[in-house]
Amino acid sequence: MRLELQNLLPEFLVAGAGLAALLPELLLPPGRRAAATAWTSFAGLLAALLVIVFAPPHGTALAVGGTGGEPHVTGWVSDGFSLYCRGATAFVGLLLVLLAMPYTRRLDRGHGEFYALLLYALLGVMLVAGVTDLLSLFVCLELVTIMAYILAAYKRNDLKSTEAGMKYLVVGAVSTAVLLLGVAFVYGATGSLSLVALEGAVAAGAPSAFLVVGLALVLIGLLFKVGGVPFHVWIPDVYEGAPTPVTGFLSTASKAAGLILLLRLGAVAFAPVLGADGLRDPGTLSWAFLLGVLALVTLLFGVLGAVPQRGVKRMLAYSSIGHAGYLLMGLAALATFAPGTGSQEAVGALLFYLLAYSVTAATAFAALVAIGAAQRDQPGLGVRGLATRSPFLALALCLALLSLAGVPPMGGFVAKFLVLKAVVSKGLWLLAAFGAGAVVVSLYFYLCWVKEMFFPGGETAPAGVPVRVPPLTRGLLVLGMVLMLGMGVAFGPFFEWADGAARSLLAAR
Amino acid sequence: MTQVLFLTFGALALAAAALCVTRRNAVASALWLVVMFFGLAGCYVLLEAYFVAAVQVLVYAGAIMVLFLFVIMLLDLRKEAPGTAPGVPLRFGAVAAATLFLVVAGLCLVDADARGLFPDAAAREGLTLDGGAYAIGEALFTRWVLAFEVTSILLLGAILGAVILTKRRLT
Q1: Is the Cβ of A1 closer than 8 Å to some Cβ of chain B?
Q2: pLDDT digits (tens, 9 = 90+) for A87-133
Q3: Considering A108, A288, B63, B96, which has the largest number of Cβ atoms within 10 A of its Cβ?
Q4: Secondary structure (DSSP) of A412-468
Q5: Which of A120, A128, A162, A186 to mutate to test the interface with B (most CBs of B within 10 A)?
Q6: What residue of A is the nearest CA neighbor of B118?
Q7: Phi, psi of A281, rounded to the nearest 5 degrees
Q8: Rounded to a whole number, what is the distance in angstroms from the first to the last CA of chain B?
Q9: pLDDT digits (tens, 9 = 90+) for B68-82
């Protein structure tokens, strides 16, 4: 066995910061704990991001066998795909740490623990990006979800937060059981936990019922994490009840963990196989059809469900279901059999989408945290007439909503365009048409919220006191806006990075 | 002989599991769960996974069950749950779960029959099975060392969470 821990350096940095974030709670007076732990976490994530960008480790972190007829097995791999996902996770993690600061400052207890749990969850997402076997997949994903249960219930004296944590725990436990059952079935069918063995079993054609049932169950387990219909029921309540920074985590990094695994698994199990005689289709049509139908239903549910919502967080929850629909659409394109480089295009589009959506959602939630921190005395006010109270916050939230809707100069537009283009290049016209139609409907409800902020109208136009935005949040929001616009206007470098990651994921075939 | 023992333990585990989920009394449910754990431990022994069987009895039937019973008694759930009729979503869920179970079980039986996934004794002759503590320890600290370390972080986070969510005063 060969252990090359330098390939795990970013993860070690994050884990180390997670341990160090507990120290201020022991050593410092209560007033200075929140800032100290936040900056410790920030430093750890920043160091991890710098390592990934400037000294990207390539290779396997753990290699077993390769001698004596035993197949060469890799336990964890740091390739282009995992580097992209880990870099994006570390970056989104930085945004999350910054946006959580106004929130944790108001906590009367458990500042260090909040950041430590957040860092462990982010560590799980980063580890998930490199898994090459089903057991590591399960353990790393559990690291993400179990931390998320705790974070969702973090406001222990708040009834809604407790409810969110409880609901998430129960639904999540069921999904975990289903996922594990699927892993057991796949293991029974292939005799190995390695994804390479799984790929071999799928490529051999005529998969056994064991294997199909196992893969379907694993797919269900992962759909829970992504929030695809019909496994979405937990999303609105949990997103609404959880503390706002945690909702930000759930809709960005936690969702990303599910998608990263769906891509890893999809590349070996659902995608068409490259045989000796070129591309051939080992019965993947059914996966494409299944994923396509799920994408369609998810999209419809998310978009139509968001229309009647009266709370911003709940609306964003439904919007996140809608975005899961687009992600599933890209997966359906990946699973569709068609000649050409469409698969790589689909994966690249999904990776770009993930980053654009995460940055946008983080910006939106950062604005919500700032609003929530400023109007604790007027909790019912929400974003109504926000433009008169804080034009800056209103601008940031407005841009984020436009990016979520997919309006041209924003990153969200390019992301949606790329996914739809990949779907069309695979010949899934109906799916693409629905995707484009959903953009129009979603534009309606996003713009309703923009109107609510700028022209509240009616005789009950709220006066309210001006919202004071702390300088740190101001910087974070500026960064978010620049990135959203940058990914929309100068998307070249981002897209090339995502495309390279996609090539690395599909290189094995 | 092995076949007979396997069927006995398997049937015991299945029956106990069914009784566990159908009892209304929480303590009775928990005790049937213990029986299920023992049935499963018997199956593990027959699979020559002696270490797992021992751990099953020690950890699950021992420690975890004590915790279950402790919580049940602490919450005073001895009284039967009020007999409310299950609502529509619950009925729907039950039907869906039962359908899923039947489909999966049926597919597996058909498939196993066709492909011979229940090998007879002769087919297992060449296999060397080692279910001892040494083999498990070696696998755990070589092949699965990464998963093992991730689990340790998971447990640390879980401890933190338990403290945060249950402790009344942290200062």
Answers
A1: yes
A2: 999 999 999 999 888 888 877 777 888 999 999 999 999 999 989 88
A3: A288
A4: HHHHHHHHHHHHHHTT-HHHHHHHHHHHHHHHHHHHHHHHHHH---STT----PPPP
A5: A120
A6: A188
A7: -115, 100
A8: 62
A9: 888 888 887 656 556
Block residue for tokens 């983080």: A362
CB contact (8 A) between residue A210 and residue B117? yes
Partners of A275 in beta bridges: A278
Could you tell me the residue ranges of all domains in chain B? 1-85, 89-125, 132-171
Mention every residue, 6+ apart, whose C-beta is less than 8 A from residue A444. Answer: A307
Q: Which residue has the higher pLDDT, B86 or A121?
A: A121
Which ranges constitute the DSSP H helices of A21-133? 23-27, 30-54, 80-105, 111-128
Q: Give the separation between CA B13 and CA B46, rounded to whole angstroms.
A: 14
Q: Which two tokens stand for residue B55?
A: 């751990």
Give A298→chain B minimum CA distance, Å.
19
* Tokens of residue A155, six digits: 């406001």
Q: Interior CA angle at B108 toward B106 and B112, to 5°? A: 125
pLDDT value at residue A375:
67
Q: What is the pLDDT of residue B39?
A: 92
Task: Write down the pLDDT at residue A69.
Answer: 46
Helix orientation angle between A342-374 and A411-425, rounded to the nearest 10 degrees: 150
Residue among A308, A290, A314, A477 at smallest CA distance from A382: A314
User: What is the structure's pLDDT at B169?
Assistant: 59
Of A369, A374, A363, give the one whose Cα is nearest residue A467. A374
CA A246/CA A502 separation, integer angstroms: 29
**The token pair that represents A197 in the structure block:** 């063995």
**Which residues partner with A76 through β-bridges?**
A62, A131
Are B154 and A188 an interchain contact pair (Cβ–Cβ within 8 Å)? no
Could you give the ipTM of this predicted complex?
A: 0.88
Question: How crowded is the C-beta side of A64, counted as CA atoms within 13 Å?
Answer: 16
Nearest CA-CA distance, residue B29 and chain A, Å: 19
Is the peptide bond between A471 and the residue preceding it cis, with omega within 30 degrees of 0?
Answer: no
Domain B1-85 CATH assignment equals 1.20.1530.20: no
Report the 10 Å Cβ neighbour count for B61.
18
Q: Is residue A186 less than 8 Å (CB to CB) from chain B?
A: no
